[in-house]
């Protein structure tokens, strides 16, 4: 089981990382979503004890570890909030830049091509 | 206990209230400033108590530690909380005087401060994560402040990289619980010693990567130049002067306080990475033409010193790391603010900041340099000393190249003025200039009378050492 | 530039009404310096004092000041020469600003720095704590930076300022390092205490060398001398002050202060000797061939401080005393020479020897006073210079024949270059006709010349001062007896030999000039200045290249996080024992249902990663989410499963809603990837996945045997009046987390509103026209410009 | 679709109340309850469009206020012990005290905290959905 959980978490993380590297901003958001799933499944996987759901402990019997579940709840909610924000951000960027491709985002103030040699010449003044 | 709770409550409650009001009203901006001043006052009271009587600690709900969340204010946390709230306050005031342009800005700043306070004052690993997210999500929105194309692009990069860092952190938190069965930092510190090396190191690596990303340490720094250089100056000041503190604090708290053995195990790696940061940031800053971009690379270089100091460790090393973090945050806050305004006094303020970064008296930076040198000498490493000298030389070169171009050579001024206008125009606001000058004075006073800072950082280092000692006992 | 000055000067002489107004700041600085001089004098006559105050006990630094002989000497120089220079500058600066058409308010960029310069010098002279010394040491460098760069509109001035800053401050860091090294070994930064405690050995040698590096750079000694000739871009009063009593003197002051420590290491002393003699030679030879007035004087300074450094390289009471004496005499003479050079340039608009000449006829007073100063450098009798050289020879005599020869040669060189300078300037055919000179520019020169003459006749006061100062450097009493002896004692013979040799050098112009030019050319080709320039330019080029590479190839910032993270994880994996560290874990009961769900998750994940269609991405994501929710349900985590289902549904809805309205939804064909790029992303993804796998599996395999805190939480749940432990944890035990979590949610909503609707949480009531633009706050100017909100063109 | 969306709203509120009341004994809490209601609202928004949903249910307009009220309630429930000089999140009644029950609902500050969460989640989700479903208002007008 340990191995299975770790493997699935790794697949989620790897696929999420792969998506983060993509040029499409939508896929970047999807990558973050996958990585957040990875984190949550790992939290659940780090339960220390197995048993029935941790309700009404006075009945006795082994209970599943409730603490990671509480953590997972919190992490889920935070993940949802950040994803929604990221989505809105991407939306805003797409509107402002007119593209959903990350590589095509350019600062308005930065020339597309940097010419270090030319810059070096112009800046040489203070050093020579 | 009351001060500790109030330090959380004041900015939290005020932030929640402010965020739904229209922050463009002058009154709202100033209420935010007032809130931060109040928070700072509470923190000062708390700091006084901590320094006099040792760490203040209690568990939420009055439950046993671990069942409830441990809130703990020790010298380290209080130092960083004071520093970060101060920087946020400066940024809030800087925006308030020129007129806030977005409804939510003041509220978000205050909530950011609340999140930072929380994470510096919590003694619980997962609670740290929650506050961490709280401040980060506010920071993501703030990065987009201005909503020009450059800022939006910066925000996307900032958010995607740092979210990745956050989730790596969360994975490490899950691992911490798995291998120790607890979340209270002090218990984790005790139990981690019995954990087999492979698992403990794996968890430690997760924490290290998460904090390095936050700090913008080489080679995790690639997001940083774009972000710092394209956000508005006040936001850049907050990011580099307050949010980046999370990374430094995390390295100290988790590295030196909890994962003591793992830190010692990987000290060489830390020092090597720190050294690489110093060189890389310094070299890249040299040819930058825009002050904000130069500052971004400078920030990469400067955190290298913190990492080197943490890597060398020991009371002197940790104190140096704290001291340097504080000084660096103040420097960066000042310098980023000066990119927003022009005027002769601003040139003076920039010089003070530049001297401070380069470690030249009379600005406070030399105290940090002194402390770092002491750690290098303690480590008996000529290489390290040479590295620090080289780093100083680089910082002096790039800072004064920019200074001369920005403030001396009138013929070149349009070049950078154009570029900076893209992040929001240069203002000549007198009040903003006054803030820059006031901050510069703080740096000068710190240099003239370094004892409070030195004592605070020594106490902070002491508190980390106590935590680590408690673990070995 | 020379032409511009000429024009301006003639204008000024044609229209004497445009005479600049009184420079109040300058004269107050002058008065303050004069007052400081008197105070210092009284202080010295009273036998000095020490002050020790706590500064930063945590760092082990104190505010230790001692007004001893050494401090008195340099403080008197800084204030005395300062008063003269400031008085001169009060007139000079007005003229300078008027000539360059700059506003008088620029004085505020000058006098505060000058005043701070003097204060820093006095501070440095009196400080006895190494950190405090470092502080004042750098303070003088900062002052000089702003003063050298005073004519900041000129590129040369900016370059000179930056060079001076870098070459003096960077080595100063070595001083700090040396101080820290000493304090780490001997537990104190205080120089007197260190003198008591420090023992000869590697630490002392290394620390001594570090301090010496800083001091020599400051005193412009070879090979770090090149900043000084460049610094001649500064206005003349700055140069005069810099060379005689402030910046350059600061270096030898530090040497004098820590000399008892330096004397404990043969290596350090040898370094001082070698550097000092080389500087004398290089500075002297280069001064022989220079054409610009201030350049000659600059190289002369390098050479003259070479004398002092050489003296500090010799051990002994005579040497220490001679060094102190030498500093005073040189300061007076060099200051006079600079002020006279400034006066000449002001009067003629010329700054080259080749364009000048015969000024003695037009400016006899200036010529006479300058002559005295030059004679002082040349060590002619009746000037203080004679005694300083006598002491120098005396000290050299004790060291053996090699140094005797070196000393004679050095003196001859000095005689030659300063003789050439004075003769070219004031004798021979008239070059440029000078305009009338303000008296304020001449009187200081005369004053200083008089001082030099007085010392030449009555050396006793200066001798006393030098003895006191030498006693500090030597850490033992020093007795000097400069006097005229009309006999053939060794020092007199050496002096005669030097004059003869110098006279010869003056005579053989051709050989002399060729040698000097050859050295200058060699210096330009291979010298340290070239190395400095090349390294700075090379640094910038590299910086540009690396940055270019970074922005071109590595800005896909996420890869840059993942790869090092993966590498670190791999390193951690490799460096720890792996035997039995990883377990597959048991599989039981419902796990057989979980496994297919996990497999389903994996498949859906891969689909999400592979597909390009936005809709299928969303569907694959929700498949992942629901499959995992089912896993949670089977893992006895019903609360999580419930929330996961709800969150997943919500996210799917939100994704769909947002994507449907996203402009540019046409999935673009990704342009042909560059070679190698095709496999890059999957490989990085795989690295990240493997790193995560190693870490996660690593810690999942290590469950702790001891009970976790959740056992306590289960036990305490009834006490908290609950039954569902998870809910109790969320609302009670860890309620703070939950409060933080919902705050995150609220901030996210606010953030979304900020991004999409300018921070408005809800749309204004549709029925009210204009409601949308109403609430811009009280000041309309603070509103964001509407135009900036629409997509930029 | 529209009909379903409209129809779902009523039951969802009931389910939510049930979740919150049973929270401490059975699965579910304020957050889940809030999400259930939020989902129903979201369905409405997707089906009718943000404007349409608002016209159909004018009460949605108060979502930001609901969220703020929820945040305030949660904050107060968490931090009120400060006034009594007790650690924050010390719920009343305390661990060994008697709890007043109305039916199955127990009256305690932990529950009011839960209600705060519920309100906040409902408000936030509504705001979020409406913003994301209809983001172009500002840019197009």
TrEMBL record, chain B:
Q: Which GO terms describe its molecular function?
A: NADH dehydrogenase (ubiquinone) activity
Q: Does the keyword Cell membrane apply?
A: yes
Q: How does it sit in the membrane?
A: Multi-pass membrane protein
- Keyword Lyase included in the entry's annotation: no
Any one cellular-component term (Gene Ontology): plasma membrane
**Membrane-spanning residues:** 27-48, 79-98, 105-122, 128-147, 154-177, 197-222, 234-259, 265-287, 299-327, 347-372, 384-403, 430-449
Recorded hits in Pfam families, A to Z, give: Proton_antipo_M (PF00361)
What's the superkingdom here?
Answer: Bacteria
Sequence similarity: Belongs to the CPA3 antiporters (TC 2.A.63) subunit D family.
Q: What is this protein called?
A: Na(+) H(+) antiporter subunit D
UniProtKB/TrEMBL annotation, chain C:
Q: Any idea where this protein resides?
A: Cell membrane; Membrane
Start and end residues of each MrpA C-terminal/MbhE domain: 677-760
Q: Where are the transmembrane segments?
A: 26-45, 65-89, 110-127, 133-150, 162-186, 206-228, 240-262, 268-289, 296-317, 323-344, 365-388, 400-419, 440-462, 490-511, 558-580, 592-609, 616-634, 640-662, 683-700, 738-756
Example of a GO cellular component annotation carried by this entry? plasma membrane
Ranges for domain MrpA C-terminal/MbhD come to: 600-663
Query: Could you tell me which Pfam families the record lists for this protein?
Result: MbhD, MbhE, Proton_antipo_M
Entry keyword set: Cell membrane, Membrane, Transmembrane, Transmembrane helix, Transport
How does the protein's chain sit in the membrane according to the entry?
Multi-pass membrane protein
List the Gene3D superfamilies hit by this protein, alphabetically.
NADH-ubiquinone/plastoquinone oxidoreductase chain 6, subunit NuoJ (1.20.120.1200)
Domain spans labelled NADH:quinone oxidoreductase/Mrp antiporter transmembrane? 127-414
UniProt main location, coarse: membrane
Question: Which protein is depicted?
Answer: Na(+) H(+) antiporter subunit A
Instruction: State the organism of origin.
Output: uncultured Actinomycetospora sp
